[in-house]
Amino acid sequence: MDLAIVALTKAGLEVGLRLAAGLGSKVTVYANQPVPGCLPLTAVTGETAFRSHQVVPWGIEVKPIEGKLKDFLGFLWRRYEGLVLIMAAGIAVRCLAPYLESKYKDPAVILLDEQGQHAISLLSGHLGGANELARQVATVLGGEAVITTASDLQGLPALDLLARELGLKPVPASRLAAVSGALVNGGRVGLWAEEPWLHSWRGLAPRLPCFPLAAFDSPAGWDAGLLVTGRRLPDPGPRWVFLRPAQVVAGIGCRRGTAEGRILAALGWALREAGYSRWSLAALASIDLKAGEPGLLAAAHRLGCELRTYTREELAAVLSAQPDLSFSETVQAKIGVGGVCEPAALLASGRGKLILRKRRYAGVTVALARVAWP
Predict the structure, then answer these.
(1) Fold of the domain spanning 248-370
(2) Is 90 exceeded by the pLDDT of residue 318?
(3) Higher model confidence: residue 38 or residue 226?
(4) In the prediction, which pLDDT does 48 show?
């Protein structure tokens, strides 16, 4: 985590330097006070004495706070993953208020008193990592981490954090707060999942009732719930969230100059036919001749996927090993290999399983494969 420590007083600066030394990673310290016993505030490039018996550790940068504090914190807000603010809570809150967006985007913010006794997780406790950072700060300084998120206090799973750890995307993400709220308020909250995620959730969240996805019938009798699957299922209601694993890859074949919209439409039709959500897409795949194809690149960017490409030889090897795959003499004559979308999907899936054979939609060929799991 790229971390900035901001101190407003001499005592705060001393604590900030001690913290930076103890964290053992690259940290930049910002202050409007000179380092005690040193030359005027500059980047510290070596071991520089700042009191008779203390040193500024090697590699710690100390830079000046420039301009108004509110504007300066806004500058840091966009550049660091975590901020440790050694200042009064009122100052920090008033300065940061204009920059708050969401827990999915805001950096982790820790509020620290100038004695280093209390490290308060102020913003982005779970997803941003502020809770864990507060614990690290408290350990280094011998203080106390102050955590206020209800799930942590009750020993309940942090659903957003566990979902991210398992590579699952909440859809719609806006409902996750309602599910978490039902959980911390003692409501009946359950999770239904496909493997291997069912096993993972049971291990990471033993207090959360977890069941096989096939056992899910209806939301009746439950206050909220989570469904871990890439499949398209009816929406159970406003207090239910799908956790989508990136488990499907799409092999794509298209002519030069094919528009992004046509590729996206073809993908949508293919996913609907196969019964999978667009949020389950892990990657698009094609022949390396298409590595710079603008429409294909734009579609991958729009979907938040990477585009993986393979050589003729790699695609031909899959076609040779699996003679049941679609083969076109016309495509062979044009590009030197008899098929693209099916072998590309299989290669990108780690030799998983085709869940939709080659389909043609408005001049775009699509095949879908499910990712192979260990």
Answers:
(1) Nucleotidyltransferase; domain 5 (3.30.420)
(2) yes
(3) 226
(4) 40
Q: How many CA atoms are closer than 13 Å to the CA of 21, on its beta-carbon side? A: 15
What is the pTM for the complete model shown? 0.66
- The whole-number average pLDDT for the span 253-281 is 95
pLDDT at 171: 93
Structural fold of domain 3-148: Rossmann fold (3.40.50)
| Interatomic CA distance for residues 161 and 182, integer angstroms | 17
List the one residue out of 261, 259, 5, 188 whose CA is nearest residue 111.
Answer: 5
* CA atoms in the 13 A half-sphere facing the CB of 164: 11
Establish how many alpha carbons lie within 13 A of residue 369's alpha carbon, considering only the half-sphere containing its beta carbon: 25
Please give the torsion angle defined by the CA atoms of residues 350, 255, 258 and 304, in that order, rounded to the nearest 10 degrees: 10
CA distance 162 to 164: 5
> Taking all residues of the chain, what is their mean pLDDT, rounded to a whole number?
85
Write out pLDDT tens, residues 130-173: 788 888 888 889 888 887 664 444 455 578 878 888 889 999 98
